[in-house]
């Protein structure tokens, strides 16, 4: 097992720069998740770690060794691909053993390793089958098994669950989490699914347009996003952003008028803010409520019922559309006017440059440990 | 009552469905008919007529005077001596020549085709141009390339002799297509030159169908490229190569134009088709020639069936997911 260090990693494809100088320290035995919208460079970054792409500039260290010029094999990494990348003409056993056959392992040794991996992944009854006789989840387990038998320093996962259906995705997610616990291995996991990122990660790296937006524990990113991009990307449905004006500045926070509402107080560090400044007020759907009382007023346009909760899509008086989450069944009806209540202890304030003003006050227990770890 | 109604309903549905499917069937036959009629006219009728003529003593001077003579064209005995195609040494020589030509030329074409396809499958500048250029020999009509090579291989005026004499490999000109020891090799070389692009094209198509991710997986596993080729690439493109070999073998077994233009009716290169033509046209023995043509048909049909069955079984192993 090993740590991975990225120093000023740059990657160009022709004249297009895909990765703009990424610095990152991945700790030993950590499960780190790269998340971001498609085209943000998360898969490229993983392929750079794997050695499938050449690094244009910067240095990469695995276990303290500079690996810029090393082949994937010499880096002692194993990779699980989104498309599984199984050899279609080989059976499950051969697929897992193929990578070992040329190395110095004896036949018995290979067999032991493969049988052990098959046992862990519950593939033992399927060893004689060809990939096309397997379900998607089984294929993905074979791909993971192929990685396990090589006993790598670092496991790399490139969107391993995105070809599976929703139910299987949840199940495999749990299996990967369990695998990480059992193997105690360094794992780098790429996904565009923020639920996967939140549930699996020790730390999440949010990438956007080839740059790291924020690195931190899942709850740190949720509660203290560094900027509007991270705030919008983490959490589903996404955070609402509403225009607001600063009406008062105090040491313990700022007072805002959200589209003409009575002032609400948000506990953020007000450095750099003055009365009259225009800012963006950010609040998650789960931190709002609808009813007859509230700071904002609007009209319900669409209702989405989920059973255990519901979403109201409310058109505010300034024309913006926000999402409000409520528990249980919705009482409101589409087309009705309603008031929206804000829980400002969970609100965020973003400046014109998109950066968040840091939050004040005591943190929740989870948040605190998360922040310490991420620091 | 209810039961009766239900049965009634089922019966109506069944009738409706069969009406629909019979309408579809009619439409299908309607669309198939023109092609079936055309095939019957240009392939079925000549084939049946050739088989029939093989059982007659027809002669090119007057086809209307032919008589049914049973298997005499194939095998007959007069005064204890056997006659007929089946005991004709020249026929068996032609069969041997054809098989020799087919095995060697198709073998070489498959090998070179695979090599060229592997090169063309790699990323390099001007790949499109090279791909087009490689296809040129295949696009030239056989008769033209045969004539062209005929001149290039000419013993007195040929450029091949000129070059080989010039660099000192030969001390005197060689009659490549006339000398029995080189004639077959000359024919094989021209055929390989002409048809390798076809094999390269089919193999390239198969190579392009291969998923790229398994090669990355192999790279991550650190498996060397030669091993990847034999353990991954070759098994996966084998079904396509078998199909290509069947196509080419069918062509090679009935080779005519190339051999006829390059070496005329020389015994050392005579193929089954050239033999049949010689009997039919030069000797005007339509009955005897038709018998030879029928045997040619049977040999090709047999070999193809064997190849398809054997190849089909094999291609079943190289399953693609």
UniProtKB/TrEMBL annotation, chain A:
Family statement drawn from the similarity comment of this UniProt entry: Belongs to the ABC transporter superfamily.
Domain of life: Bacteria
UniProt name for this protein: Multiple sugar transport system ATP-binding protein
Record key words, sorted: ATP-binding, Cell inner membrane, Cell membrane, Membrane, Nucleotide-binding, Sugar transport, Transport
InterPro entries noted in UniProt: AAA+_ATPase, ABC_transporter-like_ATP-bd, ABC_transporter-like_CS, ABC_transpr_MalK-like, ABC_transpr_MalK/UgpC-like, Mo/tungstate-bd_C_term_dom, NA-bd_OB-fold, OB_MalK-like
SUPFAM superfamilies linked to this entry: MOP-like (SSF50331), P-loop containing nucleoside triphosphate hydrolases (SSF52540)
ABC transporter domain boundaries: 4-234
CDD domains: ABC_MalK_N (cd03301)
GO terms of molecular function: ATP binding
Organism of this sequence: Pseudovibrio ascidiaceicola
Pfam (any one): ABC_tran
Keyword ATP-binding: yes
UniProtKB/TrEMBL annotation, chain B:
Coiled coil (UniProt feature): none
The UniProt record lists the keyword Cell cycle: no
Predominant location category: membrane
Location relative to the cell: Cell membrane
Top-level taxonomic group: Bacteria
InterPro entries: MetI-like (IPR000515), MetI-like_sf (IPR035906)
Family, as annotated: Belongs to the binding-protein-dependent transport system permease family.
Protein name per the record: Trehalose/maltose transport system permease protein
Organism lineage: Bacteria, Pseudomonadati, Pseudomonadota, Alphaproteobacteria, Hyphomicrobiales
């Amino acid at each position: 097992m090993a740590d991975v260090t990225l120093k000023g990693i740059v990657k160009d494809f022709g004249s297009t720069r895909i990765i703009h100088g990424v610095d990152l320290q991945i700790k030993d035995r950590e499960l780190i998740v790269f998340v971001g919208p498609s085209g943000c460079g998360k898969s490229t970054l993983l392929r750079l770690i794997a050695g499938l792409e050449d690094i244009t500039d910067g240095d990469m260290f695995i276990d303290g060794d500079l690996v810029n010029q090393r082949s994937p094999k010499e880096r002692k990494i194993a990779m699980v691909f989104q498309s599984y990348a199984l050899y279609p003409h080989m059976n499950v056993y051969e697929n897992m053993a193929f990578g070992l056959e040329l190395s110095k392992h004896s036949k018995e040794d290979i067999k032991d390793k493969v049988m052990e991996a098959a046992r862990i992944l519950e593939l033992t009854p399927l060893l004689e089958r060809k990939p096309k006789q397997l379900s998607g989840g089984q294929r993905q387990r074979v791909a993971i098994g192929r990685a396990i038998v090589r006993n790598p320093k670092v496991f790399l996962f490139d969107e391993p669950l995105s070809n599976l259906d929703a139910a299987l995705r949840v199940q495999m997610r749990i299996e990967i989490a369990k695998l990480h616990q059992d193997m105690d291995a360094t794992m780098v996991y790429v996904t565009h699914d923020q639920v996967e990122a939140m549930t699996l990660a020790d730390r999440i790296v949010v990438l956007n347009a080839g740059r790291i937006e924020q690195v931190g524990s899942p709850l740190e990113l949720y509660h203290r996003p560094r900027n509007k991009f991270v705030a919008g990307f983490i959490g589903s449905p996404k955070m609402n952003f509403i225009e607001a004006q600063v009406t008062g500045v105090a040491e313990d926070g700022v007072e805002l008028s959200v589209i003409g509402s009575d002032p609400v107080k948000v506990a953020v560090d007000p450095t750099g803010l003055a009365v009259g400044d225009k800012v963006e007020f950010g609040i998650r759907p789960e931190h709002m409520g609808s009813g007859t009382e509230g700071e904002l007023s609007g009209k319900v346009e669409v209702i989405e019922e989920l059973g255990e909760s519901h979403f109201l899509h409310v058109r505010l008086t300034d024309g913006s559309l926000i999402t409000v989450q409520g528990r249980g069944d919705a009482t409101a009806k589409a087309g009705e006017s309603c008031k929206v209540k804000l829980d400002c202890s969970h609100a965020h304030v973003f400046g014109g440059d998109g950066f968040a003003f840091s939050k004040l006050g005591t943190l929740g227990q989870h948040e605190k440990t998360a922040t310490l770890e991420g620091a | 009552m209810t039961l009766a109604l239900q049965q009634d309903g089922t019966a109506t549905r069944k009738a409706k469905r069969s009406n629909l499917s019979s309408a579809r069937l009619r439409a299908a036959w309607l669309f198939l008919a023109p092609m079936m009629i055309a095939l019957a006219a240009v392939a079925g009728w000549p084939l049946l007529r050739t088989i029939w003529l093989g059982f007659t003593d027809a002669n090119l001077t007057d086809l209307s005077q032919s008589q049914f003579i049973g298997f005499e064209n194939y095998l007959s005995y007069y005064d204890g001596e056997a006659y007929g195609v089946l005991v004709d040494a020249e026929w068996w020589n032609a069969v041997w020549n054809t098989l020799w030509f087919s095995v060697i030329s198709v073998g070489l074409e498959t090998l070179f085709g695979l090599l060229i396809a592997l090169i063309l499958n790699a990323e390099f500048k001007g790949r499109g141009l090279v791909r087009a250029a490689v296809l040129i020999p295949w696009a030239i009509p056989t008769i033209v390339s045969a004539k062209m090579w005929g001149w290039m291989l000419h013993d007195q005026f040929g450029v091949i002799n000129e070059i080989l004499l010039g660099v000192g490999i030969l001390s005197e000109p060689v009659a490549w297509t006339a000398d029995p020891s080189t004639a077959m090799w000359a024919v094989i070389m021209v055929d390989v030159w002409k048809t390798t692009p076809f094999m390269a094209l089919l193999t390239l198509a198969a190579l392009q169908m291969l998923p790229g991710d398994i090669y990355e997986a192999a790279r991550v596993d650190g498996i060397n490229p030669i091993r990847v080729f034999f353990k991954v690439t070759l098994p996966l493109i084998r079904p396509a190569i078998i199909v290509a070999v069947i196509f080419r073998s069918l062509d090679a077994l009935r080779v005519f134009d190339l051999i006829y233009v390059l070496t005329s009716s020389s015994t050392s290169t005579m193929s089954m088709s050239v033999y049949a033509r010689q009997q039919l046209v030069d000797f005007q023995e339509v009955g005897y020639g038709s018998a030879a043509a029928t045997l040619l048909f049977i040999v090709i049909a047999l070999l193809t069936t064997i190849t398809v069955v054997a190849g089909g079984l094999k291609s079943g192993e190289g399953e693609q997911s």
